[in-house]
Amino acid sequence: MIFSLSSCFYAFTTGMILSIVFLFLLNTKTLYSVIHPKILVFFSLLIIGRFLVPGELFFAKTISTTFFVPDMYDFIKKDIFFGYNMIDMFLLIWIAGSVLFLLTTISQLWKGYRQLELIKENAAMSILSKSSAWNTEKKDIKVFRSGYVCSPFSAGLKEAAIFLPEKEYDPEKLHWILHHESTHIHNKDLWKNIGFRLITIVLWWFVPVYIFRKLFTLFQEIRVDQKVLEFKNETEEINYARFLIEEIETQKSTLNQNLNLATFSTLGGWMMGKRLSYILDEKRKGYLNVAFCVLMGILVLFGFCFVIEPDYSNSEYSKQQFEGTYGEEDFTHGEIQEDGSVECYLDNGESISFPSEELVNTIFPNLEIKKES
Known about the structure:
Order of helices and strands: HHHEHEEHEEEEHHHHEHHEHEEEHE
Structural class: alpha/beta
Distance between the termini: 38 Å
Oligomer: single chain
Largest sheet: 5 strands, mixed
């Protein structure tokens, strides 16, 4: 795999286009009721991967253009600040931003850890047995009830636990909560959240990554909802959806800012609307999944198949390079070589190589050009 300015530029351009198309599709609520969430997760990670590995693959074709790209390349390579060009400045800002985001994330996680410890110190603890029908993890899980908790969630990396409010739930609702949160723990969603935070630290300048992070949380919730309702009838699905709506009304966002957690009832009406669409309006069909995979597959493949290179044969920069060096009268003729370049011969027999016939015609429009003899 080859890394260059061209491959990075193309990765950025195609990644942005793919992100806009994909985010437009993801903002369509109906999509969640017809397409399997795993497919959406796969393509979102693939698009992010295009940014993380902006290389040129062996089968990529080069597209040379004289429009905009040569002048843009000249501009970003030009020294603008104490010998630093645009690329240097971008890398410095990128690194500084990543360090700042890393420090901010560490601070948030530390505050979250302190909050969890405070909750545990003032909570009543019980154990969700590994043999319980509502324990997907199949390991004993600690359950804490505390007045500091507004809505159920799971948190903790080394030893994940479930946190509940002090209020009493009826048995059916409590079973839903325990099943839901233990499934989050079983799926290692808390670790996945940390992984996505690291991606955000690296790609902090890429605005869609924050939306992808939100969507990634949505996909986790949909996957867990699917597990909880796996063998439930339509009436139970409706009751479950109503309970989610009840819980979102009591949930507050203060804990979620610092804690790495997985909640029972998703913060935000936008996300809840997508979950309810999945639960209540499920009509996934195999051919729709295939059609979506083909469409997104073509778009993603297009993002890996080409590299845009600047063609300087007709740029102002190229004309300035040769202006005043030699005049047309200094050359006798030019000869086109096998590789497409042109050897232009001076009166004294010496020659100068030009990358293309088009460039020679641009600079010396009346010079005779012959095929190589």
